[in-house]
Amino acid sequence: MRTVLSFLVVAAVSVALPAAADEPEAPTVVTGTGAAVGPSTSHTLAQVHGGLGADATRAAGRSRDVEMSATKVTAAKVVRPAPTPRVLRRMAPERVSSSIDPAVRSCATESPTVAPTSFGIRVAVAPDGAVEATELASAGRVAPALLACVMRSISAAKFGAPGAAGASVVLPVTVPGRPTVTTVTVTPPATDPRAEPAEVSSN
Hints:
The chain has 203 residues and is α+β, with helices and mostly antiparallel strands.
């Protein structure tokens, strides 16, 4: 009986060994970092090629969604102090208003109404009297084209030098209304083609 059991055990081992030998051995893969990865179906293609982790995969995905936006650059507002009475007399704003009046009046073509438009323009004046910046100082609304025309006229002005600190003054502006064009059509009197010319007798 013992001999029969031994024979059966030997037979079972001899059958199992060829079956195991017939199975192909999974190859050992070497990653980009030099570490060997054993045969396992849990390793992804990303792990084989350099060991890319889940965090790096998500970061790579997010990098494709980044949109570059243009940087907005805003110019710094020029701030000048209000002039003292003595500085104001030296700047002579009345003279400046008179000098720019023809250019301001020519802006009437940009006015949306036939009525005059009055508003104030705050002017930042540099130490040498040049105009640095202009802005609307009134609370009312002014047509953009009209405002731009007036500001261009004021930008070319030259004040008296206010000193090292510069100054900020408000110039009152009045722009005439948009000129109107009147068209007059003259119709000649109709003539009757049946009328005979009058005879002129000579004595």
